[in-house]
Specification:
Layout (H helix, E strand, L loop, with lengths): L6 H21 L7 H14 L2 H12 L5 H21 L5 H8 L8 H22 L2 H21 L12 H17 L6 H26 L12 H15 L6 H7 L2 H15 L14 H57 L3
């Protein structure tokens, strides 16, 4: 029997993807001469850059079970929307078309590339988390936290040189999610979680806001994915939403489109820029409201397109992914048998 997805966590996923679209929308607007909008931009980064970390924490909290057929279906969805979006924008350059045909291997979407890698590593990470003692697990997390979060936050130097947008931060967040699921089973008071989240957000906003106003350029030093403040807020948000247990078929269905929304986000915003010139309103007092409305429209449009794809291509994709999965498993089995035979002494 398939366990129903918890709608409280699915709602968190939806809010995270909406926040990510808001950040991406702000990033494409020229707001350098508008101090209020500059501060709104910094505040949105301070709050919504927890989105990716929340996604990975949730993956770790529930644990990824490697399923080759599901990965192939996910890859087919990414391939369909990437090729369609590239052609719809009229980008027929050789480099763009190659990236569109191999979006995971070429890193067309850094999150999806890291997510695929994490799925392949998940069985080993899960086994390691299960076999380690709690004390040893905690020591490992503290070591990873120091190297990939504390040092980049307070020493500024980012060991991985990826601002947290890489596999190292994914592994750290995934393992924290596993630890919370295994050992942090009691609910933390909501007031404490809200205070910690607000405090972390305020620290980010104050530090990045100061650097931004002093230099005149948008600074995101403390709102990077490798920031300790971002990680702290993301953990608190996960624990906060864990308290609100409920079920909603509508929310669960909508949240099933989140990865497709991430893939479609850039294409839709690029296309809509031709018809909705947000830059024309960047000095208006209500500009922030327009950004949120625009992001919500992109979210709903992306969901609609993915639901249409599911309706039209759901069965062919399921058939193709099943065949490809069976072929790849047979191929891997044959290679393993060959390697085993070559390793046997004569």
């Amino acid at each position: 029997m398939t366990q129903k997805r918890a709608s409280n966590f699915e709602l968190l996923r939806l809010l995270c993807i909406l926040g990510i679209i808001v950040m991406h929308t702000f990033a494409g607007i020229d707001i350098d001469r508008s101090v209020p909008n500059i501060l709104w931009n910094v505040l949105c980064d301070s709050v919504f850059n927890t989105g990716v970390t929340c996604f990975v924490l949730l993956s770790g909290y529930f644990g990824i079970r490697f399923d080759l057929q599901k990965l192939i279906r996910l890859d087919l969805m990414i391939l369909f929307f990437t090729v369609s979006g590239t052609l719809a924008l009229g980008d027929f350059g050789a480099k763009s078309l190659i990236k569109a045909c191999f979006p995971i291997l070429t890193g067309r979407y850094w999150f999806m590339t890291c997510y695929f890698a994490l799925c392949f590593l998940a069985p080993f990470l899960n086994r390691a988390a299960e076999r380690m003692t709690q004390v040893y697990f905690r020591r490992l997390l503290l070591t990873l936290l120091f190297l990939f979060s504390v040092v980049p936050t307070f020493g500024y130097y980012d060991i991985m040189r990826d601002a947290g947008k890489g596999l190292a931060n994914f592994i750290l967040s995934y393992l924290i999610g596993r630890y919370l699921a295994m050992y942090h089973t009691k609910d933390t008071p909501a007031r404490r979680l809200l205070c910690i989240t607000a405090g972390s957000t305020l620290c980010i906003f104050a530090a990045d806001g100061f650097l931004t106003l002093r230099s005149g350029a948008i600074y995101t030093v403390f709102s990077r994915d490798c920031s300790l403040f971002i990680l702290t807020s993301a953990v608190c948000l996960l624990l906060l939403f864990r308290r609100f247990r409920f079920q909603s078929a509508v929310i669960n269905r909508a949240a099933g489109n989140v990865l497709a929304v991430y893939v479609l986000d850039e294409f839709l915003r690029t296309l809509l820029e031709r018809y909705i010139p947000l830059n024309d309103y960047r000095f208006e007092w209500y500009f922030i409201l327009l950004v949120f409305a625009y992001a919500l429209f992109v979210l709903l449009l992306a969901m609609l397109l993915n639901e249409l794809r599911r309706f039209l291509l759901g069965r062919p994709e399921a058939w193709l992914s099943q065949k490809l999965s069976a072929f790849l498993r047979r191929l891997c089995s044959a290679l393993l048998r060959r390697l085993k035979a070559d390793a046997e002494p004569l």
